Amino acid sequence: MARVGLTPERLVRAGAELADEVGFDEVTVSALARRFDVKVASLYSHVRNSHDLRTRIALLALEELADRGAAALAGRAGKDALAAMANVYRDYAREHPGRATAARMRLDPETAAASAGVRHARMTRAILRGYDLEEPDQTHAVRLLGSFFHGYVSLELGGGFSHSLPDSEETWTRLLDALDALLRNWPAPSAP
Amino acid sequence: MARVGLTPERLVRAGAELADEVGFDEVTVSALARRFDVKVASLYSHVRNSHDLRTRIALLALEELADRGAAALAGRAGKDALAAMANVYRDYAREHPGRATAARMRLDPETAAASAGVRHARMTRAILRGYDLEEPDQTHAVRLLGSFFHGYVSLELGGGFSHSLPDSEETWTRLLDALDALLRNWPAPSAP
DNA sequence: CTGATTGCCTAATACCTTTAGGAAACTCCA
DNA sequence: TGGAGTTTCCTAAAGGTATTAGGCAATCAG
């Protein structure tokens, strides 16, 4: 009955790797147990249940993403910062598709509030300091960027842009140009 | 052994309703069988398997969405058309959250090519005729709008905007203003 | 009315999830 | 160093979902 040395951390890390290999949807307690060559029930001492496992993988991904974002943002401002952050999201999704999917998992409000998601929001606001936006426009812009990054990465990962021209690379740089331009020339509300 | 009158269409329609009630992830062959008060195996004459069922629900949602879009776009142009289409997506997601999630399901390329997804792309291009965009910028813009709608609806449905001010309604109208302004003043590529 | 077809059923297999309780492997202190 | 206590992993078991094979009854065509 040799002990393998399971810990929640090791399980979550292995679960994240599994997600990148076979897709987040295929991450299952059973598959994880197989990976450690251990019986399924053994995992339940370290992880509450399947949902808990998946949530923890999501939290890990959000942390990693926030760390990369913080590093990328250091010393940058304006469009430089915008592009750096955007590329962090996109590159992470390409390197770690399973984790990236996990990061988009819906979290219940308390979990979300305690997650690295709040760092993400802070970083986005930091980027927007390079543009001239008062509240509530700054919040609108945060939501715009969040929606766009989320959506673009989802669609690209799902293959939405892969079988048509121009290639996704070009669209990406041009859309960052466009968002930068929009943030610099944020429009006043239209007449109601 | 009374016959219930199952057909693929009825199953898919009931599956869509089930998705709206309990979430697309909870749509399962078993749950659907329960809903018809029929044994699980009976569904397999009408639907290939679970994945097939879910795919068909996604296709139904894409159709419905395209129909609504076509109706909303009739007789509109420019920002009017943009806002109409955008609201179709958002309203549909609020009325039919399960279907809307289904519509964002990843489809394999052949299925996607045969789906109403192509109508969506055509409609988006039709909207962009109200703006002055040449290729490849038009394609970039299609992808921008697709990403934004997809992302915003996901985040809003996931409760991302619900516990903070300003409320999502205001952000939505302001972001449509912003996208309209961006499309009218599409920037030239930045210096490489 | 009868023969063919179709529709739903029983039965069986194979996963995955989760809980309860047991035994071996560590830990740590006397 | 030698237990006592805790921790870690295991066996066992129950319940849910997915899927296939094969059967009988309801329906339909002629």
UniProtKB/TrEMBL annotation, chains A, B:
A Pfam family: TetR_N
Protein name listed in UniProt: TetR/AcrR family transcriptional regulator
Recorded superkingdom: Bacteria
All residue ranges annotated as the HTH tetR-type domain in the record: 5-65
Keyword terms: DNA-binding, Transcription, Transcription regulation
SUPFAM superfamilies linked: Homeodomain-like, Tetracyclin repressor-like, C-terminal domain
DNA-binding region: 28-47
